[in-house]
What does this fold into?
Amino acid sequence: MNITNTTKLIEAYLKQGTAHAKQNEWERAISCYQKITEIDPTNAIACHHWADALLNLERWEEAIATYHRAITINPNFDWSYYNLADVLVRLERWEEAVHAYQKAFDLNPSLPSIYQKLGNAFLQRSLANRKEMFVLHHQVLRDNPHDIERYHQAIELQPRDAKLYLGLGNALVANHKLDEAIVAYQMALQLQPDYAEAQFQLDKILKFQLEETLTEGSPESNRQENIQSNIELTKEDEISQAVQGTPPFKRGSVQGKGAIARRTSVPVGSIMPLAGGGRDSFAPRGSLTLFGSGSSFEHATPDPRGLSNSFHSPSRADLNFVKLKQAKNILDNLNQIALDNFLLTNTQIHLPQVEQPQVSIILILYNRAELTLSCLYSILRNNFKSIEVILVDNCSSDRTRKLLERIQGAKIILNEENKHFLLACNQASQVATGNYLLFLNNDTQILGDSIKIALETIRSSPDIGAVGGKIILPDGTLQEAGSIIWCDGSCLGYGRGDDPKDPKYMFRREVDYCSGAFLLTSRELFLKFGGFERAYQPAYYEETDYCVKLHKAGKKIIYEPNVTILHYEFASSSCSDRAIELQKRNQQIFVERHRDWLQFQYSPDLSKILFASNRNTCRRILFIDDRIPHPYLGSGYTRSHGILARMVRLGYCVTFYPTDLSYLEDWNDIYADIDREVEIVTDSGLEGLEKFLLTKKSYYDIVFVSRPHNMNHLNYLSARNKNLLRGMKVIYDAEALYTLRQFEQRRLKGETISTEEQKKLIAEELDLARQSDCIIAVSALEKQRFIECGYNNVIVLGHALNPIPTPNSFYQRQHILFVGSIYELESPNADSILWFSKEIFSLIQAELGQEVNLLIAGNNTVEEIKRQIEQFNNDSIKMLGKVDDLKDLYNQARLFIAPTRFAAGIPHKVHEAAAYGLPVVTTSLIAAQLEWEDEIDLLVADSSKAFAQQCVKLYQNNQLWERLRLNSLKKIESQCSPEYFTKTLKQILKY
It folds into this structure.
């Protein structure tokens, strides 16, 4: 048979097979396709259709083999892979199905529903793998029910399986990890509230922990025996429990469900009972955590025994409790070792003895001598020495008295009865001689220069009544960063469990009150108010009451983030009904005494925490710019720094939001020249701006945006979410019209820009301001551009500078100075320096001699600039980099150069040079931006030769130099008045 006849015969069988398939006559269709493959074994299409027919007959294995045959003949047959995958899905052979769909997708992404089918195959493969792994974990756990890690792996696969959490709890008990076991049992009960076995196990542990707390002083060996005798599991019990849910505790040890309550009952409106060293048998300072009546949130501080208020998922709160307890155990061991060594070696502590101390540190002691020793060591490590230490021992029963015998230089009061915290503090204040009192828990450690910083803070303003700081727990998390008082008298420590270095805890702010774990206040004020109010004795609410009294007297309570202490918390006391009753009673006393003040506080609602955390009631500003505005950065940041500083002085609450996160700084560098009252968001950037605004809805009154690209992004976000900026005024600080700079730059490169293109580009940049309530221009010229485009809400805000002319005379000066930062090779400053160094400076030296130096000061992050200047081989060009104080350079220089060939806005460097009394040679572009006159206020030139001639002329002419110096200083007085700058900014912010 010739090729033509063969082809015709194949086509005929194919047509016939297709007709049978349409009639669902699959066997006849298969017969046709088989005949084709007998004629041509390499016919992939026939194999494919044959497989399709087998698929419809649900002859799965045959279909798979035939699709594979088609694919072998034609590896690029997308439909064969696609249909093969469908068959494999029916057989739940997910791994093979994923592979087949992936091949089909690679060959033809347009196949019907390929994305959905591939995604589903991926999901089913994952579920199958999880199921297989779960069976494996289950088998392993039957043989080894103590395998904690295996339980965690199984829970990852089946997170809603209450039995797994029950088994995990049993494994944790077997490994003596009781706190973690509590969390596991609680999770089981969260998933299945009526799970009797989990409740039984939880009750058993809680009973054991309560008994252990009551016998806290028993030797460790006895405690381990108690664990083994009370919570011992047999292997058979554990296997049964892990698989079937049978209680693993020794039968008969506790009868029935509910042997001990699974939570501590806390009346609504009360303080959670807490334990600690400072309050003797009550809670420590800084541990007040309250509920408001009808409040919608639970306390942030976990119960000291690990009892949660309700059975909830063991998320951060429960897991953090376990982590915290582990950290405390480590700390306990270290402190006990230190105390043992201190007492065994007859060591002594010598505290400073100062005749007129600035600060009297008051520590109230009740047991926990090891923590007291650690606290005293931290005081000794502190650099601030103008202190006296007053120790009041409330009849401790441990080794505290032995410790006190080894302390020299302290005032020690030994009470023969427990006066508790309040009365003991008042007692100590009567013998204090320092100007300030520092109430300090004995279970704290002072970190860094906290005493000195707190003292500097309280002295910084006469209206500051008390200063507190950041309190960090042993696990490194935050206990509080200032505290909130709600309108019902309940309280909340701000930031519990968070990262202490989170930006929202790194700025100074006024708060409702600060914890007595570290509270610095004036001794005169404290005594004037009669000390802590006796109505609150023996403890609770005394420092809260004192801080409110300070508020009523017109004083502020300041949270200072650089004041940092490590706080053990819950040091020596246990939870008790007595503590709960005291807290309830004292809250009521507090409310009765300060009802007039409380009526202006926020209601207890988590959604109000952000507002309540800062008592500054002035308007709030979100300031958006590329970088944190350090003055040394130049490029408009000097001006931004001035704006930011004045916002703070005007009383605004400011958050600064840098959009460019490529410039990483540590907190010391960040606040080196930024007011500590400014919150700086260092972890979000431009990509995180929308999320940030969503989390702070209705919080800010003003959004102040600098630079076009930031405004463009804000416009995009606002268009996408119409409610994003609701209630906020948008102020656009244009800073400079960058399009104008681009025009000049392109002209330098020889490009021709049509008038139509210029108008179009300018209109696009100006259009960014359409949604703004107010527009700021840096000069009258740029304001005019906005007005020409129909804007009438434009205000000019230039620079703020005081004239501070440097003293050297004309003849005492020698050098030529340039000041400016360089961050890009294509920037105006980079072009200025390279042009001047290459084409102009050699002409000047030819006239004036080699002894004239060109001094270049300012940040330079572009290595290419340095490399090119080094190629000039001119030792008289000095690249100085960043110079912290420029006064000496201005005093040594005879003239300042600004050879700027493209730029926008208004040049701060020229204003600054003029303010220092240094005459300037610049280009006509800069002179026009400044609106200064050539030969009167400065000298102007645009070509290399002319610029060199102007520099030589100014360098040699004393009379010209004096005239320009005097006139430019007058310009600074009239155009850069700080008073006018502040007045204008105030007008803008009230727009």
